[in-house]
TrEMBL record:
The modification N6-(pyridoxal phosphate)lysine is found at residue 288. InterPro entries: Aromatic_deC (IPR010977), PyrdxlP-dep_de-COase (IPR002129), PyrdxlP-dep_Trfase (IPR015424), PyrdxlP-dep_Trfase_major (IPR015421), PyrdxlP-dep_Trfase_small (IPR015422), Pyridoxal-P_BS (IPR021115). This is Aminotransferase class V-fold PLP-dependent enzyme. It comes from Christiangramia sabulilitoris. PROSITE patterns: DDC_GAD_HDC_YDC (PS00392). Its cofactor is pyridoxal 5'-phosphate.
């Protein structure tokens, strides 16, 4: 399988040509899904005892299958949280694969982990956490949130051994991401949701909620999760007052900045995150707003040792890694995964190549595009802005439209291969939601999308 033959050379050329063409193309074809039966009818069974040949398989991917996907980096993809990995990061993703490095332990991965840690050092510096803080790259925000919350839960058990057999309870707001509830389920923990009708969670609201708990529940409370940029609206909780309260009450504060974390690098909005420097743990997704390819999340801890206590795996065949000579930073010790890809390497290479200023500029552009779009919405008599643009999210209404109208409009633009913009809900009303990430999105793109709402 490993011997170089002519087939392999040809396949390599095909793959490299495809890759270079794809990353040079700023407006890749906006594909759409097909039913599985339909795809099978076109390409046939691809796994056979003899193999169908690399050239053939690649052709099926290039000509059929990739066209049944939506390129998340298309400049008119404003749905969900889009992405816009840099070319440098994508190329280095190939290098990461080609280098076959095991990313769990320093003994095997030292040089690669060094790269990841360089990138992590910059991420940590954006948070303002103390020198002792550090983190590790994960598969995404969900895994980062789980890793942080398990660490918090273990620390709570350590601090309150009398309650160690109780179900743990975490508190968050209605603006929090679905993964928080989902990971609480994985941990078999309960969730107390504070209704943030004020749009963001404040220290006062948190204080009321905590003081209203009965004693048993207060003792079960192991963490508060605040959000640094809600996924739906880009709203940042009042981290300062929330952090002050958590500090006073000795409750673990986790700040989920999976989407918004990139904006920590943007001077124009950095003050909105004040208080984050008091967090016990933070999630940031480089695959969202730091231009990394999928998948790459990050979890950062104020006290890294607590993460190690929670996550370090033990086993006869792993003991060697704890040995002198293998000493160094072992990423496996700080999150839920053992064998791991060096997910931070593409981010490292791209940061090293471009410098952090380029990142600041690209993130500021996303914020600016949201401001520009909001102004255009305000001037349009058919449209109504629901709230000021926040980070890179804009929520607005097409006057007179029902939920079905928004849905039909989404499909129409998508089927035409023009844009992917999806509706959302804000305060019980259907709205259009724009989320900007890609700095190559133009004002003309915004104008053309708004025109489709007439
Ligand atoms: C996207 C997101 C997540 C989940 O991250 P994944 O990388 O999709 O696992 C968690 N929290 C927030 C605030 C998010 O925006």
């Amino acid at each position: 399988m490993h011997t170089i033959d002519m087939d392999l050379v040809e396949m390599t050329l095909d793959v490299m040509k495809y890759t270079i063409d794809r990353i040079s193309n700023i407006t890749p074809e906006l594909g759409a899904p097909k039913k599985e039966e339909e795809l099978l009818r076109i390409v046939g069974e691809t796994i056979t005892p003899e193999g169908i040949g690399g050239e053939n398989a690649f052709q099926l991917f290039r000509d059929v299958l990739v066209k049944a996907t939506v390129p998340i980096d298309h400049p008119r993809h404003l749905a969900f949280v889009p992405a816009a990995p840099t070319r440098a990061a994508i190329m280095f993703d190939l290098v990461t694969s080609a280098s076959s490095i095991h990313g769990a332990y320093w003994m095997e991965g030292a040089g690669g982990i060094f790269c990841e840690n360089q990138a992590m050092k910059w991420l940590v510096s954006l948070t303002g956490l103390p020198e002792t803080a550090f983190g590790v790259f994960t598969s995404g925000g969900t895994a980062a949130n789980l890793s942080a919350l398990v660490t918090a839960r273990e620390e709570w058990r350590e601090q309150k051994p009398d309650f160690a057999r109780e179900r743990a309870l975490l508190m968050t707001s209605t603006g929090a991401h679905s993964s928080i509830k989902s990971m609480a389920k994985v941990m078999d923990a309960d969730v107390y949701l504070i209704d943030s009708d004020e749009e963001y969670l404040s220290g006062d609201q948190l204080k009321d909620a905590v003081h209203n708990l009965n004693e048993a529940d207060r003792n079960r409370l192991f963490a508060v999760v605040a959000t640094g940029g809600t996924t739906n609206a880009g709203i940042i909780d009042d981290l300062q007052s929330v952090a002050d309260f958590c500090e006073q009450e000795k409750i673990w504060l986790h700040v989920d900045c999976a989407y918004g974390g990139g904006a920590l690098a943007a001077d124009s909005v950095r003050h909105l995150f004040n208080g984050i420097e008091k967090a016990d743990s933070i999630t940031i997704d480089p695959h969202k707003w730091l231009f990394s390819p999928y998948d790459c999340g990050a979890v950062i801890y104020k006290d890294l040792e607590l993460a190690k206590k929670a996550h370090s795996q033990k086993g006869a065949y792993l003991e060697i890694f704890k040995d002198e000579g293998a000493q160094g930073f072992n990423p496996a010790d700080y999150q839920i995964q053992l064998t791991r890809r060096l997910r931070g390497m593409p981010l490292w290479f791209s940061l090293a190549m471009h410098g952090t200023n380029k990142y600041k500029e690209a993130i500021e552009r996303g914020i600016e595009l949201a401001q520009i779009a909001a102004e255009k919405v305000k001037k349009d008599p058919n449209l109504e802005l629901m709230r000021p643009a926040s980070l890179s999210v804009v929520l607005f209404k097409r006057k007179g439209w029902t939920a079905e109208d928004y849905r039909d409009w989404t499909y129409k633009n998508h089927n035409a291969g023009f844009a992917l913009v999806t509706p959302s809900i804000w305060k019980d009303e259907s709205v259009v939601r724009f989320c900007f990430i890609n700095p190559d999105t133009t004002e003309k793109d915004i104008d053309e999308i708004l025109e489709t709402l007439h």
